[in-house]
Every structure is written in C-alpha cells, then in structure tokens.
Design goal:
heterodimer; A: 230 residues; alpha/beta; Spore Coat Polysaccharide Biosynthesis Protein SpsA, Chain A; 43% helix; B: 118 residues; mainly alpha
Chain lengths: 230, 118
C-alpha cells in the first residue's frame, strides 16, 4: 500500500483556477517562509499547475473546476492527512502579503486561538474600489447578524487555523459562499478565534478575478439553499 | 371538459411525482402533494374555486388554479435545485478523492500522519 511522507508544521493552502499569470509571483513571495506550500489547481485550463510545480509548490489537481471553496477543502483535507500542525489559506491572485502569514500564526499562539482571521478593515487596503468596500461592509454586517461572530471582515481569504480548528471545517459551499460558511462553522465549533490586521492589495488583475457585485446575490441564494438542504 | 381532462392528467402526474419524491424531499413532496390535490379538487368543483377565489381576493376561480400551478412549478424547481446540489456534492467528493489519491500515490514515501485532531 502507498505510504505518504508526513510533513508537520504549517501548510499554506492556495486554491487556484487559471492563475498561470499570477501564481508564480505569489509563490516566489511565499518561498521565503518556512512552511509547506500547497496549490490546489481547480481544474485550470491554463498552465497554473505546471507553473506552481515549477515554483516548488506541491500541487493537487481537481479533474474538473469545482470552485474555490471545494479547492480549499481539498487542500485542508490533504494538509491534515500529511500531518499539518496549522493550515493557512492564501489567495492565488496576489492580493495577500506573505509577511502577514507570520502575524496570523503568531496570533494563534498568543491568543490560544484555533482560528486567526485576516481583517483588511483592522489593517489596510490598497486601491479598494468604493463599491467593493460597500459590498464587503454589507457582507460583514450580514455575517455578524447570522453567525453572532464579532468580525470586521467577512470575506477575507487570508486566515490561519490550528490542526484542531481545521479539522472542524467541512466546506460544502463549493463557490464563493464558502467564506460565509467558514464563519458559520467557526461559530458552531465554539472554538476561539481572533482577528488580525492584514493588508490587501487590489490590482486590476485581482479585481477582474475577484467577486462581482452580482455574485453576492448568488452567495445569498447558495446560503439560503443550504438552509433548506442541510 | 377538454381543459378539465388535461389539467387532471397534469395534476395527477404531479401527485405521482410528489409521492415518489416524499422520501427524498419530505417538505417539497408534501407541499407539492397538497397543492396538486387542491388544484385537482378545484378543477372538478369550480364553484368552490370561484368562492375561495372571491374570499381570498383573487377574483376568478380559474386564476386561483393558475396560481396553484405556478406554486407547484416553483416547488418542482426548488426540488430540482436541491437534487442538483446533491449531485454536485457527490461530484465534489469524487474529484477530491481523485486529487488526493493521485497526490498520495505520487508522493508515497513514508507513513501517513495519524489522524489525531486533538
């Protein structure tokens, strides 16, 4: 039977779909960190997987495109299977700063927490369009109302969790509604969380790849459908 | 009479569908069953449909039946959506198993981690 190498320590999990243009630069930035880097290629039709593997990341490939939530769950499952002590989720489009990873992991230890959630509204944003800011604020307000969690940023993909915390996450929202779902599951777990200031850099590329205003309606519908079919 | 027979056939098909779906989607199945049974009753007792329509402010009995039909259509649509979700979840599980299985096969060197989540 196949045996797989154990690799404890923190794993940085990146869900990537058609990110061949950006993933190399993101991985170069992360290469200075003493963590395992795992890219889940979510059925890309470009060379995302090849570029990521060439940059030294471990790469998992979904045979078809499922969505960011599904890719993150695959990455979390695999990292836990490989013995990860911590899991960090990180975006593939260059919005996140590698130096914020250390702050998230440090916050877990300092606050004896199982989840460290990046918050751009406690930290900083660069070139965040006003409409996007408004939508993010509305999403945060909605999440606070529905989860009871006192968070300031509901849709930030930069977060860290302990092994215990990661094992409590079971994402069933394959697409963007997973960001709200994670917060619901954190609230349900009863485990401690802490928000950590991070900086998000918006670029033309990341804005084009990110969520559109109309997708917030789809997210709400997804969350509603989940209530009907738990 | 032709319209009555046609509606009876369609509503009868909905009742069969609702009965078949009751085990998988109890709420949707029950609602569709009630709506279709009510529709069937009003098709054959239009006087009651008119009386109820006037009572509820809909106006005409035939409008009430159309509204019931719309409700049934939405319930069937909801049921299809839920089924599609279930299919997607199965597909996700399969794709995940393939991705992880392939990575484990390629990187198989030592013992896997013990699944302790303290």
């Amino acid at each position: 039977m196949a045996r797989t190498k154990v690799s404890t320590g923190a794993w940085v999990v990146i869900a990537a779909y058609n990110e061949a243009r950006a993933i190399g630069r993101v991985l170069t930035g992360l290469s200075a960190l003493p963590h395992r880097i795992l890219v889940v290629d979510d059925g890309s039709t470009d060379a995302t997987g090849e570029v990521a593997a060439g940059a030294g990341a471990e790469v998992l490939r979904h045979p078809i495109n499922l969505g960011q939530g599904a890719a993150l769950q695959t990455g979390i499952d695999y990292a836990l299977l490989r013995g990860a002590s911590h899991v960090v989720t990180f975006d593939a489009d260059g919005q996140h700063r590698p130096e914020d990873v250390a702050g998230l992991l440090a916050a877990l230890a300092a606050h004896d927490a199982d989840f460290a959630l990046g918050s751009r509204f406690r930290g900083a944003t660069v070139a965040l369009p006003p409409l996007r800011r408004l939508l993010l604020r509305a999403a945060t307000w909605f999440t606070r109302l529905t989860t009871g969690l006192d968070v300031t940023d509901a849709h930030n993909g930069l977060r860290a969790m302990t092994r215990r915390g990661a094992a409590r996450i079971r994402l069933r929202q394959n697409r963007m509604a997973h960001a709200s779902e994670i917060l619901h599951q954190i609230a349900a777990s009863g485990l401690r969380f802490v928000e950590v200031p991070v900086t998000i850099h918006y670029s033309r590329y990341s804005l084009a790849k990110g969520q559109r205003a109309s997708e917030f309606v789809v997210i709400l519908l997804d969350l509603f459908a989940r209530r009907l079919h738990p | 009479m032709t319209a009555q027979l046609l509606l009876t056939f369609l509503l009868g098909a909905i009742i069969v569908y609702a009965l078949a779906e009751r085990r998988r989607s109890p709420v949707v199945g029950a609602l569709a069953l009630v709506a279709a049974a009510a529709g069937l009753y009003f098709v054959w007792v239009p006087a009651h449909a008119t009386a109820l329509a006037e009572f509820t402010g809909v106006g005409r009995g035939v409008d009430l039946i159309i509204y019931i039909w719309v409700v049934i259509s939405l319930l069937v649509l909801l049921n299809l959506h839920l089924k599609l979700r279930a299919q997607t979840e199965a597909l996700t599980g399969l794709a995940r198993a393939i991705a992880i299985g392939e990575a484990m096969r390629v990187g198989s060197h030592a013992r896997p981690a013990a699944p302790s989540f303290d």
